[in-house]
């Protein structure tokens, strides 16, 4: 709770103020047990509390003028702390002013030079008295000692302040009285009232009967608080109706203007320009000065005007950004709204110049939210993905509302920590592996590859073969795999003729918790090698014996003797077969088709042909290198099948040197030679 006491200043020590226990409803007997204590920010302890009764009394008299200077309301704030239980009470003491200060004048005496020829009604400004008391206890009126030539009148300036003026009631005669000694008395409104006197010495002059007169009784000006030295504040101007030196006006600050203000400002004695003379090190927004205009007469006359200078705040302080708390790194699975940092943003300028707006870039997954006064929270606005962006440089821009506005930037570096949110991904949807048969044991077949965009253990991938069977046997009897790099090796030799292809699955698993995995199918295709020679299916031959075919003795040309049929277990070009005659007992009698393997006669049989012939046929594939097989065919010229087949181990009787074909050739050659010789002879005869 809070309680307010009022006490007059200078109240003697020990005077009762009140009873804190009664006023706050506290049992006075418990004050000591609850360890009461009074806390104040003042350097002196002005009040005491009686621990047994709770009576509140004055510990030291309070001087209001010393404590609060010119403040209209003087307050002392105390806090009463009690323990068991802990309680806090606020006490406010309003110090009331008493009339303990008399009015005083800045100078011990004042001199006024007054020309004798002035007419009644002439006015002269008198000094203002100062009283440290407030309200009714301050200066209320002025009185002047009785004099037949002078009276006192109060005047009001444009701002409402009052000042005394000395008014001439009766014309002066310097020859009768050159000096008039008056007493100006200032009285306050206290009870009883107090007063202060100052002598006013009036010297009667014989010339210069016009004082300078300002255009305005109050001048107002406004300057910026950071105005440099030499800045023009205002130019005052006063006119004097006198001529010559009596009408020349010089300007200066009145003696009542404080020395601090006279150091901060300067006034040109001839032009009346008031300029900044140094740094405006003031905390008050309004400064008050009195400017005096005095002519150059033998006995200068003067008048004063008030100058009010308003100090305008400028936006000379940029916002200050302070990071009071920062959480970095943050996990990438942080939910939107997660607080990352707490920022304090302060601008020392008052008013609009001290109001601040704060923002960050719009293309970031973060946002600023106002928190307490001058505090902002930096929170996530959407889901994060470390694999896309692993860190952010967040630039915070604070701008005040001054003109021109001042901007401050601060960059916050936020790292994103990884979570295992990505399974391994293979480089292809499926892998095709081609391997030749008869491979060596342990041969490298292929290396599958999977990547995981996570980092650390979350991105470390290991490979395994999924359990399956191939041709009725376990996959592991065919293949092995390197768990670290995904290399696949053969554990046995493959045979194309037995197994042409198979497939299996490889699983890739990361080392996160929980672990994530993916699988891919690997197709293995076994390619053929030329490891099988052609097999002769027909004509059959057993134990290397000669296969016998019977041909009629008078068979015609292109007679099909037999057809050699062969097969090759290999594939593709390794199984492409061609047929060739490796040996024939009569090369002019038989021909073999290279593609079909058909053995036919090249001409009609003659009675002179041998009865037995032997042909060796070679069947060759197109492998690299090619493989071949041979078969020996015995050909028997007979019209009927004999009961016993002859022996074809020898090649039969040698053919006669002059058979019918040879005879035909010799006769043809002789005829051609004879015709050619006859033609040559004929040409020679014609020539001759």
Give start-end ranges of low-pLDDT stretches. Answer: 651-657
Overall 3D shape: elongated
How many distinct domains?
6
Over all CA atoms, what is the radius of gyration? 66 Å
The helix count comes to: 4
The CATH architecture of the largest domain would be: Sandwich
Would you summarize the structure shown here?
By secondary structure, the chain is mainly beta.
Question: What topology does this entry show?
Answer:
Elements lengths: L1 E7 L7 E4 H5 L12 E4 L6 E3 L5 E4 L5 H5 L6 E8 L4 E10 L13 E6 L7 E3 L13 E6 L5 E7 L5 E7 L10 E10 L6 E11 L7 E2 L3 E7 L7 E4 L2 E2 L9 E5 L5 H6 E3 L5 E4 L9 E10 L6 E11 L7 E7 L3 E2 L7 E8 L9 E4 L6 E5 L4 E6 L10 E10 L6 E11 L7 E2 L3 E7 L7 E4 L2 E2 L9 E5 L3 E2 L2 E2 L4 E3 L5 E4 L10 E10 L6 E11 L7 E4 L8 E5 L8 E4 L1 E3 L9 E8 L5 E3 L5 E4 L10 E10 L6 E10 L22 H28 L1
Parallel strand pairs: 1-7, 8-14, 16-23, 25-31, 33-42, 44-51
Antiparallel strand pairs: 2-5, 3-6, 4-5, 6-7, 9-12, 10-13, 11-12, 13-14, 15-18, 17-21, 19-22, 20-21, 22-23, 24-26, 26-29, 27-30, 28-29, 30-31, 32-35, 34-40, 36-41, 37-38, 39-40, 41-42, 43-46, 45-49, 47-50, 48-49, 50-51
């Amino acid at each position: 709770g809070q309680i307010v006491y009022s006490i007059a200043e200078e109240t003697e020590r020990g005077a009762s103020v009140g009873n804190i226990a009664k006023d706050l409803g506290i049992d006075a007997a418990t004050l000591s047990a609850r360890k009461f204590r009074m806390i104040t920010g003042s350097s002196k302890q002005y009040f005491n509390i009686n621990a047994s009764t709770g009576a509140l009394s004055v510990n030291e008299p309070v001087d209001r003028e010393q404590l609060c200077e010119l403040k209209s309301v003087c307050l002392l704030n105390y806090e009463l702390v009690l323990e068991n239980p802990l309680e806090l009470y606020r006490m406010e003491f309003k110090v009331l002013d008493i009339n303990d200060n008399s009015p005083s004048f800045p100078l011990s005496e004042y001199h006024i030079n007054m020309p004798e020829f002035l007419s009644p009604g002439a006015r002269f400004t008198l000094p203002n008295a100062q009283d440290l008391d407030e309200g009714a206890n301050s200066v209320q009126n002025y009185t002047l000692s009785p004099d037949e030539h002078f009276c006192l009148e109060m005047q009001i300036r444009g701002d409402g302040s009052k000042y005394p003026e000395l008014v001439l009631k009766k014309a002066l005669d310097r020859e009768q009285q050159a000096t008039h000694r008056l007493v100006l008395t200032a009285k306050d409104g206290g009870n009883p009232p107090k007063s202060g006197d100052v002598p006013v010495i009036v010297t009667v002059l014989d010339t210069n009967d016009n004082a300078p007169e300002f255009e305005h009784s109050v001048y107002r000006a406004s300057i910026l608080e950071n105005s440099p030295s030499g800045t023009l504040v205002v130019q005052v101007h006063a006119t004097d109706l006198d001529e010559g030196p009596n009408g020349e006006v010089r300007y200066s600050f009145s003696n009542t203007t404080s020395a601090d203000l006279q150091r901060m400002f300067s006034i040109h004695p001839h032009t009346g320009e008031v300029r900044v003379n140094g740094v405006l090190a003031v905390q008050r927004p309004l400064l008050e000065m009195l400017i005096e205009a005095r002519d150059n007469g033998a006995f200068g006359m003067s008048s004063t005007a008030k100058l009010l200078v308003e100090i305008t705040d400028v936006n000379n302080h940029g916002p200050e950004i302070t990071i009071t708390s920062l959480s970095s790194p943050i996990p990438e699975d942080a939910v939107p709204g997660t607080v990352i940092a707490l920022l304090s943003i302060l601008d020392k300028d008052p008013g609009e110049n001290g109001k601040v707006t704060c923002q960050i870039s719009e293309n970031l997954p973060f946002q600023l939210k106002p928190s307490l006064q001058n505090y902002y929270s930096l929170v996530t606005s959407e889901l994060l993905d470390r694999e896309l962006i692993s860190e952010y440089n967040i630039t915070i821009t604070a701008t005040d509302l001054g003109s021109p506005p001042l901007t401050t930037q601060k960059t916050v570096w936020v790292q994103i920590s990884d979570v295992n949110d990505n399974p391994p991904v293979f480089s292809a949807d499926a892998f095709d592996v081609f391997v030749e048969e008869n491979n060596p044991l342990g041969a490298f077949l292929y290396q599958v590859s999977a990547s995981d965009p996570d980092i650390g253990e979350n991105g470390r991938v290991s490979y395994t073969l999924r359990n399956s069977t191939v041709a009725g046997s376990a996959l592991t009897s065919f293949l092995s795999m390197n768990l670290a790099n995904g290399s696949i090796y053969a554990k046995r030799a493959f045979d194309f003729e037995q197994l042409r292809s198979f497939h299996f699955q490889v699983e890739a698993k990361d080392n996160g918790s929980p672990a994530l995995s993916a699988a891919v199918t690997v197709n293995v295709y076994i390619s053929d090698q030329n490891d099988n020679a052609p097999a002769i299916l027909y004509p059959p031959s057993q134990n290397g014996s000669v296969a016998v075919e019977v041909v009629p003795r008078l068979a015609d040309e292109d007679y099909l003797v037999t057809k050699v049929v062969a097969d090759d277990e290999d594939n593709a070009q390794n199984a492409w077969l061609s047929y060739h005659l490796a040996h024939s007992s009569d090369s002019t009698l038989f021909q073999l088709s290279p593609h079909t393997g058909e053995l036919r006669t090249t001409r009609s049989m003659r009675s002179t042909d041998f009865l037995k012939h032997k042909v060796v046929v070679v069947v060759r594939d197109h492998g690299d290198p090619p493989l071949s097989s041979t078969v020996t065919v015995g050909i028997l010229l007979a019209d009927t099948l004999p009961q016993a087949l002859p022996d074809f181990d020898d090649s039969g009787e040698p053919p006669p040197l002059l058979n019918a074909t040879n005879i035909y050739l010799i006769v043809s050659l002789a005829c051609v030679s004879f015709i050619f010789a006859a033609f040559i002879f004929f040409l020679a005869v014609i020539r001759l």
